[in-house]
Predict the structure.
Amino acid sequence: MKARFVLRASTPWWRGPLLVGAAALLTILISAIMIRWAGGAPIPAVRYMFISPLQSRFGFTESLLSATPLVFTGAAVAIAFRAGYWNIGAEGQLLAGTIGATWVGLHAESLPRFVGVPLILLAGALFGALWALTPALLRTRLGIDEVVTTLLLNPVALLIITGLLNGPWRNSESGFPDSDVIADSTKLWIIWPNTRVHFGLALGVVVIGLCWWFVGKMSGGLKLRAVGLAPNAARIAGLPVERTLLTTALVSGGIAGLGGASEIAGVAHQLTTGISNNFGYTGVIVATLAALSFIGALLVALMFGVITVGSFSASRALEIPSQIGQLVQAVLLITVVSALVIQKYRVVWTTKRSEGRK
Amino acid sequence: MIDVTEEIISSSLRIATPLALAALGELVTEKSGVLNLGVEGIMYGSAFVGIATAAQTGSLTAGLIAALLSGALAGLIFAFTTVTLGVNQHVAGLGLTLLMISLCNTANRIMFTADGGQVRVDPWQPLNFGGPIFSQYWLTYATFLLAVPFVWWLLWKSGLGLKIRAVGENPEAADVAGIGVAKTRYTAIIIGSLFMALAGAFITLAFVGTFTVNIINGRGWVALALVIFGRWTIGRLLAGAALFSLVNAGQLQLRLLPSFADVPFEILLALPFLAVIVGLAISGRNVPYPGAYLKPYKRL
C-alpha cells in the first residue's frame, strides 16, 4: 500500500483551523514528552508555559516585554519575504542595531532625553540597515543569493560584539565582558507604570501599523508585492525590481536594527553577548506562522512572549530546562506549516491492484 | 618559516574536513533540486548525539553511528516536509535547524549541564604518517581520499547520480522517463544528511571532545556558500573550502604574532566568513543553479 497526496478540488472552511489546532496539540504533546524526560510533571508544566503568564499582571507585562523584540524582527522578516527577498539575517541586523545603540548610549551623557532617545533609536536603525546593505547590493547588482550572505553575516555580528566587549567596551567597573550602562538620557520611557514594559513596544506596534499601511494600501507597497509574487512579470511591466528589492532589504534591516536599539535602550541598558536570545531567527518563525501578515506577526509575537515567560516560570518552578521555550516555537513552526499544506490535500491509499486498475 | 607554512597547511586540512563533508552533502542534495537549510541544524544534532552517545557508551564508534542515525532521521523529516508535502524549502530548512538546535540544547541541559557539568570524551587522536601535514584524524584522510571521490563517482558516474541530476534539472522530463522523482529526492536528501552528520560528529568526536552551546557556529552556512562558490562542481567546492580554511588557519597564526596582540581575536575569527562573502562576490555571479532549484514537484 502506498500513500499519495492529491490536491483537493475544494477545501472546506473548517479544515484549516482543525489542522492548525491538531498541530498545536502535537506541539504540546512533544513538549510534554521532553518535560517528562526532564523529570517534570507535564500537565502543570504545560499550564505554567501557556496559561499562567496570562493570569497575573506581572506575567502579562513580562510577556509584553519578551514579545517586544519579536514584534520588530517579525515585521522585518515579513516585509522582506513579501518582496521575495529572503532576508535570514535579521539576527545579525538586530545585533548590529545593538552596537549602534550602545555606541550612542555610551557617548550621550550631556544630552536632553528628547534628543538622546531619537538618536539612539536612529543609530540602531541605521546600523541595522548598514548590516543589510552588503547582501542587498550583492543580490541586486551581482545576482548573488541573499540567503547565504545574510546567514553568513549573523555569526560575524556576534563576533564583533564579543570583540568589542572583550576590548574597548569592557565594563570599566567590574571588568566583565559587558558594556557600561548607557546614559540616562538615552533610556526609553516606561509606558506601563511599575512594570518593565517600555516605549519600544509602542514603537513596534507603530512599525507594524506602518508596514501594514504601506504594503497593503500604498502604490509602493503594491510594487513590493508584485515584485515578490512575480518578479519576471514585474520586470516586464517596467517596475524597478532591483531598486524595490534594495529598498525593502534596507527597510527590513533597519526595522531589525531598531529592535536591537529598543532592547538596549528599553530594558538591557547595556550590551552583553547574550543580548539577542535568537530574536532574529525567531522572527522568521513569527513571520511564517503569521503567513507574512503584519497584524498576524504582532499576534504571534505576543503569543511567543507568553511562551517565553511561561517556559522560564515553568523552569523555575519545576526545574526543567528553560530552553524548552525555543523548542516549542521550532516544533510549532514545522507542524503548523505542514498542517497548512496538508489542508489542501487529501491522502489516497493505493494498492498494487488499484494502481493497475487506473 | 617552513614550520609555520606546514602548521598552516596542517590545520587547514583539519578545519576543512567538516566544511568539505557538509558541502559535499549539500551538493548531493541541491543537485536533486532541493536546498537544505537544515545543514547547520543537522551538524548541530549529530555533534551532540555523537558525543552524548559516546559518553554514555564509552565508544566513539557507537557515537559515530548514533550521529549518522540522527542525521538520517533529520533528513527524513526534511524530505517529508519538502518533497512529500511541498513546504517552502527555506522555511522547512531553517525550521529544521532551529528544531535541532533547541532540541539538543534542551537535551544537553537535561543530560549533562543541569548540575554545572559538561559532557567530555577522549576524542580520536591524529594518525601520524610523518610531519605535521600528515598527522591528521582518520576522518580527515577519509574525507579527502574516500568521500570526495565517492561523491564525484556518485553524482557523475553512477546511475543514481544520473537520476539525481535529472530530477534536479527537469523533474517533469525525469518523471516521463520513468524516474521516481520523490524517491530520488528522498535518497539524495538522506545521503546528503549523512555527510552533514559526519561533519557534525567530526567536530565533537575528533576536534574538541566536548559539547558547548553554539558549537557549529555558522559552519553549516559556510558549507552552503561553498556549494554556490563551487558552482555545483567538486573541484571548485574544494577550492572554496581550502580558501576558507587557509584564511582561518592563517588568522590562528596571526594571533600568535606580537604585533597582533592588541587586535581582539574575535575580529580575526570573523575574517574567514568575510573571505567567503568576498569569494562569492567574485565568483558567485551568473552561477548555474540546478533547473528545478527550490521547486517542489507534484504530478497533476
Notes: Chain B has a mean pLDDT of 93. Chain B has eleven helices and two strands. Residues 244 and 276 of chain B are 6 Å apart (CA to CA). The radius of gyration of chain B is 19 Å.
